[in-house]
Amino acid sequence: MATASDTVKLGTPLPKFRLRSVDGKPYADESFKDAKALVVMFICNHCPYVQAVEDRIIALARDYKSKGAQVIGICSNDPTDYPDDAPPRLLERWRAKNYGFPYLVDESQDVARAFSAVCTPDIFVYGPDRKLVYRGRIDDSPRDASKVTKHELRDAIDAVLAGTQPKAEQVPSMGCSIKWKKTA
């Protein structure tokens, strides 16, 4: 079932986090302190919405790395019912697709809750002061890259890198709901 990302108020500070990447390296929010723009994407392997934009995400991360923007992916899904989202499978896909950016595992799901993430992909862009400046979709064609006419995420990153604010009107991302752990 498709879910739209909730609205988090622009200007909200970057939540503190400390997670391991799929290849076992430790990362924290301060690991990216030198980036002019920090793009945090909640993604996973199994979601068809993420699969449809995965190559665009990888290209975006490569295009902006040398410009001062850092992309990170976080998987917060409970892999119990979605084994493709288990860390070994995440690592496999990260290597096969040569992501080129850290892909972190949020096993406790505390980081997703701290960000108020609700779907995959769910995208947050923070400026150099680590305040939220963009929470929206990648572009206007989530299913078909050939039909993209608006590059909202790229426009938001360009604005941050130019020292300006992204447009205030932002279209929420849409995707599969985060697969929360079942409570007894």
Description:
- The protein has 184 residues and is an alpha+beta fold.
- The model has no long low-confidence stretch (mean pLDDT 95).
- The protein has 4 helices and 10 strands; from the N terminus they run ββββαβαβαβββαβ.
- The strands form 2 sheets. The protein has a 7-stranded mixed β-sheet, covered by helices on one side.
- The chain has helices spanning 48-65, 87-97, 110-115, 152-161, and strands spanning 2-4, 18-21, 26-28, 37-42, 69-75, 103-105, 119-120, 122-126, 132-134, 174-177.
- The protein has a single domain (2-177), classed as 3-Layer(aba) Sandwich (Glutaredoxin).
Short description:
With 184 residues, the protein is of the alpha+beta class.
Layout of SSEs?
Elements: E1 2-4, E2 18-21, E3 26-28, E4 37-42, H1 48-65, E5 69-75, H2 87-97, E6 103-105, H3 110-115, E7 119-120, E8 122-126, E9 132-134, H4 152-161, E10 174-177
Parallel strand pairs: 4-5, 5-6
Antiparallel strand pairs: 1-10, 2-3, 2-6, 4-8, 7-10, 8-9
CATH superfamily: Glutaredoxin
Physical arrangement of strands within the biggest beta sheet: 3-2-6-5-4-8-9
Mean pLDDT across residues: 95
Order of helices and strands: EEEEHEHEHEEEHE
Major beta sheet summary? 7 strands, mixed
Measured distance between first and last alpha carbons: 23 Å
- CATH structural fold name: Glutaredoxin
Can you tell me the residue ranges where pLDDT is under 50 for at least 5 consecutive residues?
none
